[in-house]
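pasting for ref
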Amino acid sequence: MSGQKRDRPWLMRTYAGHSTAHDSNALYRRNLAKGQTGLSVAFDLPTQTGYDSDHVLARGEVGRVGVPVGHVGDMRTLFDGIPLEQTNTSMTINATAMWLLALYQVVAEEQGADIAKLTGTTQNDIVKEYLSRGTHVFPPGPSVRLITDMIAYTVANIPKWNPINICSYHLQEAGATPVQEIAYAMCTAISVLDAVRDSGQVPAERMGEVVGRISFFVNAGVRFVEEMCKMRAFAALWEKVTRERYGIEDAKQRRFRYGVQVNSLGLTEAQPENNVQRIVLEMLAVTLSRDARARAVQLPAWNEALGLPRPWDQQWSLRIQQVLAYESDLLEYGDLFNGSAVVEAKTAELLAGAEAEIAKVLAMGAEDGNRGIIPAVESGYLKSNLVASHAARRARIESGEDKIVGVNCFDTTEESPLTADLDTAIMVVDPASEQSVLAALKQWREQRDEAAVQIALEELKATAATTANLMPATLACARAGVTTGEWSFALREVFGEYRAPTGVGGAPVAVAAEPGGELAGVREAVAATAAELGAGKLRLLVGKPGLDGHSNGAEQIAVRARDAGFEVVYQGIRLTPEQIVSAAVAEDVHCVGLSILSGAHPELVPDVLHRLRRAGVEDVPVVVGGIIPAADAEALKAAGVAAVFTPKDFGITTIIGRIVDEIRLANRLQPWAATLHGIEQQAATS
């Protein structure tokens, strides 16, 4: 053993929450009892996007990907018996971050806590929502104001809280290269710090306190060396920016503070047991280098590509962290990579690339006096870059250039006992829990002081129309019993809503239609089928029903379908089944493709099918893609879905080809492969 004092382990979390506040509270208590040292709260999509559980868009989404928190009573139940003054809580919440922090503070006060001692994090990074995850609500200007107000409030009142977690995690999942991940996250941080500085809410001499509470949330992929060097580049760049741009002299305030969840995008449905070693390798990238070690780590579970992990699966991921931290000698040594020529060269390369991209982004909008990342968001520049990078990555996987063990190579396998019974290999949310949430919400509204609610909401709207800090009015709403939807819709009245650019139109071709290649064959099938149907072009509607904002898969289907010769109708995220059917009828499409990753498919897909039939649309096939268990896939097909695609269907061009055949079958035409075979036979005998 070395003579150096052993370092403290990082905070260990699992991202958790589901069904109801009561069920999630029980889960949190069990996780803490197992040695978890921090909580990471997953909120359901209605909570994240500012809807009450009984809103039409919330149907099928309540309690699916996280816990529903509709008011202070739910927050009270969520943390019942958990002393908040002694708990480090991370909340993955963005558009409604101010609201959830207000609820958290009120519950802490009810517990008798000193709010100045509260520790934890609100993610609160709206830029990455516009680019990758889709839970934005308000336009960029008001969203930055909400973030600025929260930062100013917490610095003054909750000084140990991290009011924003600049989140590059989802940028990588949306296709970002390491250079793009560093650059766009750093541009977001710079834009936020500039906004706080320019708001006048924080005295210049206290900007060091603001910088000292900025944290980051990053992604660690399986390319171990590159990911570890990325973190070293991140740390070096943050040191430079905070010292040179903001004049922060205190080295402690300049420290790059980050938490991490390792890559979920790379987890596979095929041979999912391989995900365990992927998770371990990715964790090492953010823990081995002491000078760039994560302050908090949460690991996904091996079966997340299949569905919602069970408590046992999350325990396995927690134990992986504990073995490294407590059984190995890692924490007894300094940085293992200092002096490595390979690491220094790769870090310098990433740093140079990121600085060049930062300069480009921050210069956008300069002619209008509007520097920062927002012009790059509004123009679609950032989104198009991410869609293009993701398309290029998918093309490398399909070609075999990027090897994924068990997917495009080494796919011969023994039967896995872990997945022998797929119905029990994941956790299924009880559909009855949604009804219990709706009943409790109704009861909450009936029992509260309605006059006090309306007074608080009017004060919130009045404050939003000024430049005053919105946190006090939000706290008043929380105390009065206002609901999540009521808070957000009051601000929607003042700020409006925002639909972010999709990035599909500007994405370049990722796969060339080389003669004899698969894409060329599909292009031929698309053109021939359009001619046989008497249509100028085949039209595909790509729809995202419900509140699932993870649009990466839908965007890649849209781009490849476009490159195959389809006319693609893609209106972005957050649509009702009624809106999707209306678009399908108005655009006279030949196929409807639905993308749902939230688990809401049992509710939303049959609704779309029913509405199509009611509209008299009988010959338009509906295909569905997402994280869909096998039993659910069979049920959807029985209900009338033509085809179901899951993460194991990694060949996008192949998927487009199958869509063409579903269109042909629906119109009583032979499948294209059979037609092509007939043409070849005819040519051979003529």
